[in-house]
Design goal:
Order of helices and strands: EEEEHE
Number of strands: 5
Structural class: mainly beta
Distance between the termini: 6 Å
Length: 66
Amino acid sequence: MWKCKKCGSDRFYQTFKGIFLITKAGRNQDIIESNDSIEKYSKFYCEKCKKSGWTLDSIAEWDDEE
């Protein structure tokens, strides 16, 4: 189980923004065609102490004992 290097918590989150490009829409605003979605991810965060980093292993350590 991953544990935060700073506080020992095992709960983490990562926010993201998603975008899809509309290439064709109908008169009633219905989407007819779209390109693949583009997702941009933020840093990883410890839910408890808010320590952050671009990779999980930069803010947490693997603990085999759990």
